[in-house]
Specification:
single chain, 210 residues, alpha/beta, seven-stranded mixed β-sheet, two-stranded antiparallel ribbon, 9 strands, 23% strand, disordered N terminus
Length: 210
């Protein structure tokens, strides 16, 4: 960084457009192999392919027909993978506006504009406004920066607990954290399926039928 580009006598850096990078791709389903545009911004932490593959293998056919809530969406890799595997629609929440704009580009490239929406909002504020959400079962991905479970733990637990209470029966929840988080703090702690993929720890819950 800081050096002149070859052939650029004025020393200006060439304009770079974010492009696909290794590891940010759709693993399976109708968009299998399609790569997602990703800026490389360190604030965005896409789930590793091996972890995503393991997660979606666990979720299996339960994804089909569900409405996705991708909280702290980043690249949107989780929600878009779910769409590839049969989810009915998705809402992506991403506060960082350049990342949200890139996520919209990914949705457009996949032709999913009619069934996917991106909101460039703070997830905590969005939830406190009591959003109107579909009555069909949801698939909720909660994959924030890991430090939120330490610095904003109360808000995280209110968010997860509130959405779980509001969710229709048979909704699925996927919470990603690291080993610093005490998963026993989650609602119904004995009913979560906990999986370790260092440094990530995934907790999976399905709301029972009423």
């Amino acid at each position: 960084m800081g050096s002149k580009a070859p052939g650029n006598s004025r020393g200006k850096k060439p304009t770079r457009r974010p492009g696909p990078v290794a590891g940010v791709r759709i693993i399976a389903g109708r968009f299998r192999g399609r790569r997602l545009r990703y800026s490389g911004d360190p604030r965005t932490r896409p789930m590793k392919d091996r972890v995503r593959e393991a997660l979606f293998s666990i979720l299996g056919q339960r994804i089909e027909g569900k409405y996705v809530l991708d909280l702290f969406a980043g690249t949107g890799a989780l929600g878009l993978e779910a769409m590839s595997r049969g989810a009915s629609g998705a809402l992506f929440l991403e506060y960082h506006r350049p990342t949200a704009a890139l996520l919209r580009e990914n949705i457009t490239l996949l032709g999913l504009q009619e069934c996917c929406q991106v909101l460039p909002v703070d997830t905590f504020i969005w939830f406190r406004r009591r959003p109107d959400l579909p009555s069909t079962p949801w698939l909720v991905f909660c994959s924030p920066p890991y430090e939120f479970y330490q610095t904003r733990q109360k808000e995280m637990l209110e968010l997860i607990g509130g959405l779980l209470h509001q969710a229709p029966p048979e909704s699925l929840f996927v919470v990603e954290a690291d080993s610093r988080f005490d998963f026993r703090l989650l609602p119904h702690p004995d009913q979560w399926d906990i999986r370790h993929y260092r440094p990530a720890v995934l907790a999976i819950y399905q709301k029972p039928e009423s």
